[in-house]
């Protein structure tokens, strides 16, 4: 269905209001989420504590003692009527280096076999286009990006790993992502980047932002280690 004809307003407890804009991963739906978040930020509405963005929805955390739910809904509906007038920033492209295969990408050969192509072709295809960042989530700084070339569409692992190294570059279904810190995970790991994606002291803390673009490029293991040494 894509973008809904009318935004759904759903109560989430006594302090949350969820706005659902569509039911699939698409640029159109995602743009509306981001436009709405930017418009709300620009309005600086007293009583709104936080907004949380996803692929197709926007969660608004608010103080009901300051901002009653009826007043909040009315204000949001007014904002929606003028949404297309909201200034929209141009997407920024970030190039991310990655070493593919071996200990850094333990699933690369399995991906190549499943897709019926060589490991070199997997790498070439993965680096062949910029990916749109649909959202940041799962862990701080983790980018959900798409869409992969059709030839690389893969299922998740049947059994998730208990530990995936920080910086691991992964694919699953039509998406690719980067583990910003060590964690469990069920995506197919094809490489690793030495780039730091999240730093609590950073402004902003996350290197990548929703709505921006990422393009990978391959580096050697030696270059990976040199990069890490420069950081240290």
From the structure above, extract its key features.
2 domains, 7-stranded mixed β-barrel, Gyrase A, domain 2, 13 strands, 232 residues, 4-stranded antiparallel β-sheet, alpha+beta, Cyclophilin
Lay out the secondary structure:
Blueprint: E1 3-12, E2 16-22, H1 27-43, E3 48-53, E4 57-62, H2 69-81, E5 93-100, H3 108-115, H4 119-126, E6 131-136, E7 143-146, E8 161-164, E9 168-172, E10 175-178, E11 183-185, E12 188-192, E13 213-218, H5 221-231
Parallel strand pairs: 5-13
Antiparallel strand pairs: 1-2, 2-4, 3-4, 5-12, 6-7, 6-13, 7-10, 8-11, 9-10, 9-12
What does this structure look like?
With 232 residues, this protein is an alpha+beta fold. The chain has two domains: 3-85, Gyrase A, domain 2; 93-231, Beta Barrel (Cyclophilin). It contains five helices and 13 strands. It has helices at 27-43, 69-81, 108-115, 119-126, 221-231; strands at 3-12, 16-22, 48-53, 57-62, 93-100, 131-136, 143-146, 161-164, 168-172, 175-178, 183-185, 188-192, 213-218. The strands form three sheets. A seven-stranded mixed beta barrel has the order 5-12-9-10-7-6-13. It is elongated and about 55 Å long. The mean pLDDT is 92.
